[in-house]
Amino acid sequence: MVSQDEENAELGPAAGCLVSGKRICVAGAGIAGTAFAVSLRRLCSEQGVKPPQIHLYERDEAPDARGSYSLSVRGDLGGLQVLQRLGLVDALMKYKEPGDGFHIARHTFKPLVRAVDIPLPGSKLRAALRPEEQKAYLGVCMISGRTGPLEKLPPQIEAGQWRVMSPTGTGLFVSPLERECAQWNLSFRAPESLCAELNERFRDPKARQEYLDTVIAEKGKPFAEPWPTLLCKTDLSYGLSASNPSDKLPHRNRAPVVFIGDACHPMNPFSGSGANMALVDGLQLAQQLMDPVHRTLSAAVESYDDTSGPRVTRAIMAGRKNIALAHSRGWQQLKFVVVYFIAGWIVAIKAWLKGLQA
C-alpha cells in the first residue's frame, strides 16, 4: 500500500519527484511489498534522487508462521529479470533448491525478505477498502503434506518440481524442500465446504493418519513411484492441511492507496506465477513512480494498472487452464493431451526452422 499526502500537487518533471522526501507505507512485507521497497531504493540511488521514508509493516512474527512451501522464479514470467535488475540473483543462487529451475524453499528465502506473502483466506486491507471484491473458488480441494528426510531425493524431484495427472481426475504436485525432504500436494474436485471440514478433522493426529491411509492412499493409487515412497515417508508431525485454490482478477487502483501482489490479485497455485507476478509488480510500480512523465500520483498509478492488468490476467487464466487440465478425465483429458502435443510439436518445428535460417 502506497500513501502520499498531496496527490494532486503540481510537480516538476524531475525523475522521482513523486517520491523524493515523501513517506510511503507498505502494509505487508511479502514478496511484492519487499520488491517494491528494494526497487524504489535502488532506482533512487541510481538516479541520484533523495529516497523516501519507507515503512514496512508485517503481521507475522514467528519464523514458521506460514508453513513450508517453495517458490519458482521464472524467466518467461519476468521474475528472474527483476532479481537481475535488483542485483539479487547471485545472493539467491546459493539458496536454490535441487533441479534445473530456480526454486527456493521458504525456510531459505524468508531470511532475505523477512516474510514471504502467500495466498491467505483474505486481505484485511482489501476487505476494508474494497469489500465488494471476493476471490473465486475454482472447484478443487488440495491436500498438502511433507515427508521427513529421505535417504536421497527421487530423480523426478531432484530434477525439479514434479507434476503429474491421473485418469481419475486427481492431480499431484511435488517440490523439494530442505534436508532432502519433499512437499506433496494432492488435488481433486470437491465442494468448497470440504476443506474447512478436513482442517478441523486434521487437528486430531489419529484422524490425520486415518485419512492418509485411506482417502489419500486411494486417490493416489494411479500414481507410480516416487509417489508410494513419498506417501510412506510422509511425516504427520508436520500435519496435513487442506486448501481451496482460488484467485481474483486484478482491479484498477485508486490513489493514494495501491494494491499489488496478492492484495490485488490472489493467484491460484496452479498458475505457478504468484511469486513472479509479485516481483514484477513491485518493480513496475517503483518505475512508474520514478518516471518524470507522471506529474501526479494518480497518473503514475493509472499507468501502472495499464501495464500490470493484462500481464496478471494472462497468468491467472493460464492457472485456470492448468486446473482444468490437471483434473480432467476421459475424452476431455484426451483432448487436452492432444492439443498440448500438437502445440509442442509446432513450437519444435518453428525452433528447427529458425535454426536453419540462422
Automatic annotation (TrEMBL):
<keyword id="KW-0472">Membrane</keyword>
<dbReference type="InterPro" id="IPR002938">
    <property type="entry name" value="FAD-bd"/>
</dbReference>
<keyword id="KW-0812">Transmembrane</keyword>
<keyword id="KW-0503">Monooxygenase</keyword>
<protein>
    <recommendedName>
        <fullName>FAD-binding domain-containing protein</fullName>
    </recommendedName>
</protein>
<dbReference type="InterPro" id="IPR050493">
    <property type="entry name" value="FAD-dep_Monooxygenase_BioMet"/>
</dbReference>
<feature type="transmembrane region" description="Helical">
    <location>
        <begin position="334"/>
        <end position="353"/>
    </location>
</feature>
<dbReference type="GO" id="GO:0004497">
    <property type="term" value="F:monooxygenase activity"/>
</dbReference>
<dbReference type="InterPro" id="IPR036188">
    <property type="entry name" value="FAD/NAD-bd_sf"/>
</dbReference>
<keyword id="KW-1133">Transmembrane helix</keyword>
<keyword id="KW-0560">Oxidoreductase</keyword>
<dbReference type="GO" id="GO:0071949">
    <property type="term" value="F:FAD binding"/>
</dbReference>
<dbReference type="Pfam" id="PF01494">
    <property type="entry name" value="FAD_binding_3"/>
</dbReference>
<feature type="domain" description="FAD-binding">
    <location>
        <begin position="256"/>
        <end position="316"/>
    </location>
</feature>
